[in-house]
Automatic annotation (TrEMBL):
Keywords: ATP-binding, Kinase, Nucleotide-binding, Serine/threonine-protein kinase, Transferase. GO terms for molecular function: ATP binding; protein serine/threonine kinase activity. CDD domains: HATPase_RsbW-like. PANTHER family: ANTI-SIGMA-F FACTOR RSBW, ANTI-SIGMA-F FACTOR RSBW-RELATED. This is ATP-binding protein. Residues 33-141 form the Histidine kinase/HSP90-like ATPase domain.
């Protein structure tokens, strides 16, 4: 992996579980336009990336987590403040692979920490972070390093 790619990903390392950045065997990212159709394109991008890395068997779990992270970024950080679209950086999906781990990370311009909701049984939303926790091996978030605003919400999968 080139030095340029490692430098670009450096702000993402902060807050992740200990991982050697030089051991990255694959990395892909995509900017997400500020509309809900971005969830579908994030899933398609995830499918293409996982197929390229011969990780097709992980698609269902990883795509569910990616969908939840992207939906949260759009709902709570991007579309919640439409007047900031011109000044705030867009959401961005990052997929990074190591020999034994896969990390899905979504960057958004909000400083607010993600909060797991207490959805009642009739609610149509509010379970996203519960699903992220259930389907990934771990997850977390941290402020975006080197930026005045923004955060990264990530989920880690151990590879078979």
């Amino acid at each position: 992996m080139g030095t340029k790619v490692l430098t670009m990903l450096e702000p993402l390392w902060q807050g992740f579980p200990p991982v050697d950045p030089l051991a990255v065997s694959g990395s892909a990212s995509r900017t997400l336009p500020p509309r809900y159709e971005s969830v579908r394109s994030a899933r398609a991008f995830t499918r293409e990336t996982l197929q390229g890395w011969d990780l097709d068997e992980l698609f269902d779990s990883v795509a569910l987590v990616v969908s939840e992270l992207v939906t949260n970024a759009l709902r709570h950080a991007i579309l919640a403040a439409p007047e900031q679209h011109d000044t705030a950086p867009p959401a961005r999906l990052h997929l990074m692979r190591w020999s034994s781990r896969l990390i899905c990370a979504v960057r958004d311009p909000s400083d607010d920490s993600p909060v797991a909701g207490e959805a009642d049984s009739a609610a149509e939303s509010g379970r996203g972070l519960y699903l992220v926790e259930s389907f990934s091996d771990s997850w977390g978030w941290h402020p975006l390093a080197g930026a005045s605003h923004g955060k990264i919400v990530w989920a880690l999968f151990r590879l078979p």
